[in-house]
Amino acid sequence: MSDQLAFDWPTGVALGPDDFFVSEANAQAYAMLDTPETWPERKLALIGPTGSGKSHLARVFQSQNDAVLVEAATIGADFRTDAKTVIIEDIEGLPTLAEEAVFHLHNNLRNARGTLLLTSHVPPSRWSIALPDLASRMQATTVVQITNPDDALLSALIMKLFSDRQINPQPHLVQYLTTRIERSYAAAAEIVARLDTAALAQGRKINKALAAELLDKM
Q1: I want to staple 182 with a disulfide (CB 3.0 to 4.6 A). Which of 115, 124, 187, 211 is the partner?
Q2: In this structure, which CATH number among 3.40.50.10860, 3.40.50.360, 3.30.420.40, 3.40.50.300 belongs to the domain 27-145?
Q3: Which domain of life is it from (predicted)?
Q4: pTM, rounded to two decimals
């Protein structure tokens, strides 16, 4: 970490499964998930681009609140749970046959003063829900958004992506990439994957020269 600090890398970077690097791009979402008692009707929609950390935050929330977490696409017509805190990931992928079950889940949680967290990469107005009663309840959900990354978060994300591949990049490489790629989670994932693939294919080190070549091609 001493080398990182010397190059002004962000401290507290999310490298562990229960860690989360907070910046201006996600600070509001992080704070909201820490205070579910303040959510109107105790339900919240966490919206953000692919790769923005929604699932990471949802799992931190799950561990802290003894919640049941389920992927929307796996919910069936007979879905039931007695849990008082429920997380539905990627709610935009909810099957039509499961809408009635989620409608009852929503009402049961509201009546029991339970908590419902929904994640999606698009806002509730763009969720394709056919059941009118469920659609109206979902569209009334309070929304908190994770925005595109600022420099601090983009640097942290690049570091995390390299770490996931057991790669320890030089600080100046991370700084170089941060100032030259599109400011998005997808762009960070793409350049790290391309660098890893190219380095293995060409038998080269992952460094600024290789990054410059790939960025020129991109």
Answers
A1: 187
A2: 3.40.50.300
A3: Bacteria
A4: 0.81
